[in-house]
From TrEMBL:
Protein name listed in UniProt: SFRICE_029727
Alphabetized UniProt keyword annotations: ATP-binding, Kinase, Nucleotide-binding, Serine/threonine-protein kinase, Transferase
Gene3D superfamilies in the cross-refs: Phosphorylase Kinase, domain 1, Transferase(Phosphotransferase) domain 1
A GO cellular component entry from the record: kinetochore
Gene Ontology terms, MF aspect: ATP binding; protein serine/threonine kinase activity
A Pfam family recorded for this sequence: Pkinase
Entry's transmembrane regions: none
PANTHER family: SERINE/THREONINE-PROTEIN KINASE PLK (PTHR24345), SERINE_THREONINE-PROTEIN KINASE PLK1 (PTHR24345:SF93)
């Protein structure tokens, strides 16, 4: 049936799914995302495949992502950050109520519709628990936004997403992620010791204090404490 609506398509070449683990991960992503309906989660419309590809049809977000906005603006104002983070928290609360951890929250996975409302997307690393006191052991995520417990043998849970939101808030205000290091290993060390970098924009240094305070309020010195 013809429609005048615009959708986004995620196309995965089957030849890239060479390992069983990759096939299982894609299946899990579809199973987790398909039933989710919330004003701050990218809508899932359909999925199908042909001989060469698997297609996931998603809500189109014409405002692109917070990362695109950050690249264009470098830093956002505190009121703008308050507005965006509030909507991110609403979306993440919905996911957690469904026993889902996103595990890869970052500006590039937070999209904007034509009215500049938040839409959380990309559930490729998400997992769903059977009970709220379960813990996951997989080492995954984007280094600059990973919670420290994701690097430990203790496992991680819902609080890992909250830590990531604190990092996003800091990044939007200051212009760079809070624990960004010259090397990935440096970033991991900074996260474990909660050592903030000093490479933020000189324009936004006046916001460094509020950004640190806000990030700590959301994520805490350690997301599991």
């Amino acid at each position: 049936m013809a429609t005048d609506k615009t959708f986004a398509a995620k196309v995965i070449a089957k030849k890239m799914l060479t390992k069983v683990t990759l096939k299982k991960a894609l299946k899990r992503e579809i199973e987790i995302h398909r039933p989710l309906t919330h004003k701050h989660v990218v809508g899932f419309h359909n999925s199908f495949e042909d001989m060469k590809n698997i297609y996931i049809i998603l809500e189109y977000c014409s405002g692109r992502s917070l990362l695109d906005l950050q690249i264009k603006r470098h830093t956002l104002t505190v009121p703008e950050c308050r507005y965006f983070i509030y909507e991110v928290l609403e979306g993440v609360l919905f996911l957690h109520q469904k026993k889902i951890i996103h595990r890869d929250l970052k500006p590039g996975n937070i999209f904007l519709n034509d009215q500049l409302h938040i839409k959380i997307g990309d559930f490729g690393l998400a997992t769903k628990f059977n009970a709220k006191d379960d813990r996951a052991q997989t080492f995954c995520g984007t280094p600059n936004y990973m919670a420290p417990e994701m690097m430990s043998a203790r496992g991680h849970s819902f609080k890992a997403d909250i830590w990531s939101i604190g990092c996003i808030l800091y990044s939007l205000i200051v212009g760079t992620p809070p624990f960004d290091g010259a090397l990935v290993e440096d970033t991991y060390t900074n996260i474990r010791s909660c050592k903030y970098n000093s490479r933020g924009s000189s324009v936004s240094h006046k916001n460094g204090g509020p950004a640190k305070s806000g990030a700590k309020t959301i994520g805490g010195q350690n997301a599991e404490t």
